[in-house]
Design a protein that fits this description.
Six copies of one chain form a homohexamer. Chain A is α+β, with helices and mostly antiparallel strands and 308 residues long. Chain A has a five-stranded mixed β-barrel with strand order 1-2-3-5-4. Chain A has a two-stranded antiparallel sheet with strand order 6-7. Helices cover 42% and strands 20% of the residues of chain A. Chains A and F meet through helix 6, helix 12 and strand 7 of A and helix 6, helix 12 and strand 7 of F. Chains A, B, C, D, E, F: Pfam families: HD (PF01966). Chains A, B, C, D, E, F: Keywords: Hydrolase. Chains A, B, C, D, E, F: This is 3'-5' exoribonuclease YhaM family protein.
Amino acid sequence: MNKQEGERIVDYFIVRERETSIATNGSEYISLTLSNKDGIIRAKLWDVTEKEKEWLHKRALIKVDGLITFYRGQRQLTIQRVRLVTEEDAIEINDLLNHANIPREDLWQELRMFIEEIDSETLRELVKTLLRKKEIREKLTTIPAAKQYHHAYYAGLLEHIVTLCHVSAQLLQVYPQLNKDVIMTVCILHDIGKTKALTDPVVPDYTTNGELIGHVVLSIEMILEGAIEAGISTDDHEVLAVKHCILSSHVNDSLQSGVSSKTAEAIFFQHINKLDNQLNALFMIGNEANEDWTFSPMFKRRMYTNRK
Amino acid sequence: MNKQEGERIVDYFIVRERETSIATNGSEYISLTLSNKDGIIRAKLWDVTEKEKEWLHKRALIKVDGLITFYRGQRQLTIQRVRLVTEEDAIEINDLLNHANIPREDLWQELRMFIEEIDSETLRELVKTLLRKKEIREKLTTIPAAKQYHHAYYAGLLEHIVTLCHVSAQLLQVYPQLNKDVIMTVCILHDIGKTKALTDPVVPDYTTNGELIGHVVLSIEMILEGAIEAGISTDDHEVLAVKHCILSSHVNDSLQSGVSSKTAEAIFFQHINKLDNQLNALFMIGNEANEDWTFSPMFKRRMYTNRK
Amino acid sequence: MNKQEGERIVDYFIVRERETSIATNGSEYISLTLSNKDGIIRAKLWDVTEKEKEWLHKRALIKVDGLITFYRGQRQLTIQRVRLVTEEDAIEINDLLNHANIPREDLWQELRMFIEEIDSETLRELVKTLLRKKEIREKLTTIPAAKQYHHAYYAGLLEHIVTLCHVSAQLLQVYPQLNKDVIMTVCILHDIGKTKALTDPVVPDYTTNGELIGHVVLSIEMILEGAIEAGISTDDHEVLAVKHCILSSHVNDSLQSGVSSKTAEAIFFQHINKLDNQLNALFMIGNEANEDWTFSPMFKRRMYTNRK
Amino acid sequence: MNKQEGERIVDYFIVRERETSIATNGSEYISLTLSNKDGIIRAKLWDVTEKEKEWLHKRALIKVDGLITFYRGQRQLTIQRVRLVTEEDAIEINDLLNHANIPREDLWQELRMFIEEIDSETLRELVKTLLRKKEIREKLTTIPAAKQYHHAYYAGLLEHIVTLCHVSAQLLQVYPQLNKDVIMTVCILHDIGKTKALTDPVVPDYTTNGELIGHVVLSIEMILEGAIEAGISTDDHEVLAVKHCILSSHVNDSLQSGVSSKTAEAIFFQHINKLDNQLNALFMIGNEANEDWTFSPMFKRRMYTNRK
Amino acid sequence: MNKQEGERIVDYFIVRERETSIATNGSEYISLTLSNKDGIIRAKLWDVTEKEKEWLHKRALIKVDGLITFYRGQRQLTIQRVRLVTEEDAIEINDLLNHANIPREDLWQELRMFIEEIDSETLRELVKTLLRKKEIREKLTTIPAAKQYHHAYYAGLLEHIVTLCHVSAQLLQVYPQLNKDVIMTVCILHDIGKTKALTDPVVPDYTTNGELIGHVVLSIEMILEGAIEAGISTDDHEVLAVKHCILSSHVNDSLQSGVSSKTAEAIFFQHINKLDNQLNALFMIGNEANEDWTFSPMFKRRMYTNRK
Amino acid sequence: MNKQEGERIVDYFIVRERETSIATNGSEYISLTLSNKDGIIRAKLWDVTEKEKEWLHKRALIKVDGLITFYRGQRQLTIQRVRLVTEEDAIEINDLLNHANIPREDLWQELRMFIEEIDSETLRELVKTLLRKKEIREKLTTIPAAKQYHHAYYAGLLEHIVTLCHVSAQLLQVYPQLNKDVIMTVCILHDIGKTKALTDPVVPDYTTNGELIGHVVLSIEMILEGAIEAGISTDDHEVLAVKHCILSSHVNDSLQSGVSSKTAEAIFFQHINKLDNQLNALFMIGNEANEDWTFSPMFKRRMYTNRK
């Protein structure tokens, strides 16, 4: 969304946030947060009518005609004309979502191949039992990996999972001592709790489960339920190794409570997971940036996004 | 174990730790850690014979005749005569264990009354389903609450649980807004994972499950299994509230990962749990101390144990 | 203050903050922070006259007629008519202040009973000497316990003190080893320095003493002055125990400087004090909240305020 | 105490610590910590007799004949002959104490001159009132500034105070904006609470007051008592400034509780106090060290003590 | 810049920041950050023309006629007339910059005298070789010591250096054991890397070098280059001591990585450097403040700036 | 070194540490730390003669005949006969050193191939210029990567470097956006400062340079010297990128001072470096361990070294 000040924009958007206010001259206006494949932009509609207040709700698909302005250093869209998307526009929500870099179908094919390469019958069956459920599979392959910062787009979690599988496959050649089956299963299942912790792939928010239990323990609970369903002993050694990697991947080394990584596979996963998250976060802001230096909210500092 | 230097001791003990060494004069000796109801003491047996090396193993019940000495500020027993306990001694392991301050049977009766006072059928049934299992009930009513520091004695966990129930019952009169059933269930089940995380009540050690999963998440897993068995929905609102209290009770406020306490019941339990642990730790060292000031390994400072 | 957008309000308020600005159209306006028993609200008066600028000062009692609007997600009052309170309104500052949940007179009666139950003559006399002074007593029974977050209302400190006395009375039955007189005296005097650290109960601010010495050490100084006046030795063992509880209650365990809690009473007070502060903070935001989840500035996270 | 292995020592010492043990060959021995002006050394007396156990107590003055050995990298004295000091030895405790680098009488004279240079009558009178008391003056001019690490010798606190006065006098020429009287008073009184927190100048230990209140708040209490005695208002602006500097000098910037430095004088004192403490600590280990690098327990790292 | 609300200002300024926006009434305006010797002020120019947008760029020298208003508690200038500075104004950039308290030429003379007093030929030659380079000397004597907070004005770094030399000269009389030549060289060269890390003295920003290497290591690199040029061995003992002081002055004691101060000179410099930075920061806000208490962004708290 | 208690050992060792002491029976003995390819063991030689004290010095190669004992849980060798290695033994220091898992010559060949694959002439020439120097090359290919914990054996640094090159080569296929030449150069040069910071490959200790400058900045200095020698501009963009990766790899995200990683290559290197260090540390203790759980001094916790 690298538009210049004063440039005109005529485009389709999803409404992500919406708020009515009264301007200093007494008239009402609406503040909006809009998004499409080009990114996110804040917008203002001045002198709003009662009707507009009615149909301009969160998650609406709209067509906008407006001008780019700047307010406190941030790009903003002053809307001049706006209407809901109609059938003739032939626009679907999917067309407006930012997607993973690789088509979701290809990612899903790759993931299925990685699953088949798990030699342990126990772990392969555990993965399949969980992904066989439609509500899990559909969510796992559409939600972002995080609400913002990294892989924060449609099917971002799936892309993250498949990338981790590739990273693992490459590094298992350098470190052949590691247990491939445990690592691959962890790559695939480590964030499965997010299918219960996030509301939906388009405008994701935390569920009450996500707030009160957290996606890490939700993942452990889902793996336990999956194991019970698949007839795997709750004390199975391989499943234990998988759960340990997931639990310890989110724990800082200096914490007394919680579980620190205590196996080679847990240490391995901890580092490749952080590596992929941070590189993706950096590439995400790099794509948006026009300049050499861009402030990153995740790293909490300016990053050098000059990629020449 | 407040013996003076040079005093003679003739008493029964359990062997908790044992190690063979060679003295600077070339002869062999055994270092032991012994315990009975009076506490724990380190001991040395000089010029040990091959036979003694054989039967003086970990967990043995022995009768000792020795003298109190001091080494680097610590009381130590120089053993002069030692033999295994025989039938005539009429000594059982139970006689040598330090116990909770209240008889275990009384504690168990009190706990059963608190369970009956849970009004929610869901939660009462959850608790009963879990405690109905013999391996859980027997361990929950015999293991210490921690390996050292607080409630570190036979049935220490049971005493901790019952004290928390009393504390809650008293304070629910001051804070009637709190959900009694959730709090009572949390008091009873919050450390149930320790029945899987600790090996045994006499010389407790961490199991592999305890090291790799941790007793907090083990508690959550056992509650999930119990709920499934009791036919309770895995999304039940009350069970969710219980699990949240347990998960958040072990998490420091400043931690990014994990789950912070977000309900009034979780905040309540967090504080009374710490209160009971710390008071018990202080009373434990106070009981052993002869002096005004005693160093506490839990608080990592000298505490004022003058109780006049 | 759960008004909807567009709703009209006609009510009495205290002016807590006031600031004149120039609008983007060049005309002057006043930004106000107003409060009454329903809570706090920000307000704007557009096209303000010189006269209005004159009498609309901090601490004024006013009657307002205005409309609720929203600005950046926050409720705001656009004032249409405003005037000073007159005699006919029969409104006093007291009517506009948010109060403790229990009438201040009842709290004061309860406190006096708790004082009489202190068996130690030394400590009872210390408490009475301090509360006998009118400037201390009046402030102690009217100021909030904190400027915001918890017990932040008229007589909030008194309510906090009396609740702590109740909590202690209940728990002394569970932990009879604790020194009742020391604990009760600490409950009553622990925040007495706030009578010097805060300016007044209505719009409290820190005094220079409060900023440079802090209310904890101010409490210690006042207790020392009270002891001297009551003819108590400055080395009295019970007064020492009281001062230790107060000093250590505000110190994190990991701090090198300052004094960590080293007695059972200090540990006890530390936890019940935090417990009451945090529960009150949570109930305060719960009262204002309409929704399941409310952001708490004290906990720095969203809290679950669904109380069904 | 830079003796080589195998060297013989015949000298006088104070007994600082003493402990009886039983050797691996069954005979009794005594472990001692001895000190004289050359430093501190650990010693062992083998095959000790009952009589020796009797008169070899803590604080005894003794004459020793022994050999230097090394045990786990630390110099140690194997005692071959030992007896109590007799009148003929003409040895007093004073002759065995390590002293400040400058004679105590000279330091006291310098301090008196600095006191006379305080222009504010209030502050000069406050200082004089406190130092006029014999028990304060005697202790202030003999105790070490700390039990170990820095100025840990007879009259170490006095030397620290006088050095701080010199440092302040020099730097007030560079920063003339600072309030000389406040700074000089702080230099003199900032550690006055240590006269109540430490037991004695020879083998200093913490008093119960020192442990439960801490020397910082004890200083504040003594200044308050001194001010009351000198007829100074408890709200005096200069005394407030002095107390603020003392309170904030021991508080880390990141602490929420306690009081951070908020005046120029407090910031000034905070830095020169740390500077003098750390330089003295480094010079202390430098004096003992024979080698380029010496481990410092205060800095918790090896320091470069090569002073060429 | 202690103007009251409504006061009129007619004065010269530098434009430091500039941003175009669209007002709620649809017209364009410019937000500016202006500065001159009296400080920094935010300004707004309403209903801006295309021409004005063209010549009102960053770093422009302008003459402004406007009124002081307040917005969200901050002083702001509503511009009524503005034009570029012309030859007749006889205003140069130098006239608008805030300067060190002592004329830059005098500071430079003082610095040259301090350099001549370095007895070590190695260190004196090292300093001279570096300052002989015009691009280093000019920048070192004009840039601020920091972008904000302390010595944040024209020639602020030079003033900081010269003050540190004075502080050192004064304190070397109290601590004669310290190596004068090392300390003086460190005072002069410790921030020399800032000549590469900051873009320019007027509107300083970080260079890419400054962001990626940091001014500390840039200082070390420049000293190495200077030493090579001056024919000094890269292992010279004095240069090593200087580099150690610089490297360790920016490292917190608790950091594992990096280098902690390990010499007396490093500890000395660490403290006087912090002392001068913090006092200067406090004097800077004190100069601007009209009130007793002023919030300091560096200390992250309100500071007492009452200097009576 | 998995010998059982009482087992006899006849083998060759290097003396790493040596200390003379006096036993409790008055006779002298020597404590030694010995090592050979099987690991490290502490040893005691009782009743030592003057001659033995003479030739049994640090770094001596010796032949030992002794018995395995245990002292405080640690294996220890009670020496019964010992002599220096003679020509007939045909033993060289090399035969006693623990080596990297791959022959040093093979590692060196692999490293040379990775160097040739650097496409940037600037970076390839920089690497070659530095490795062309015999004293750098010989040390880089023989020293351990750390004194203990990870790659702590002969040529451990070389093995670490080559493994990082392999890891990078594998992952550049997954993340092709990264700059290969910068990453490979960082892998090779990131620890080059250790050739100046460590004394020697056999019994490595920190040099004064290593203590006062640290190996990170020593690496930067050596790269600067290498660049000057190779005629590369000191502002070269690629060299800057390399130096940034090295500087930021040792800095924790939360540090204010120092430089945080700000490029994708720096983030990449930070994670793979930690990954390889931690996996190697875990494999090192795993090789020594006989049991499921082994305490790791690096991770400061027990690790699960069961590799089945």
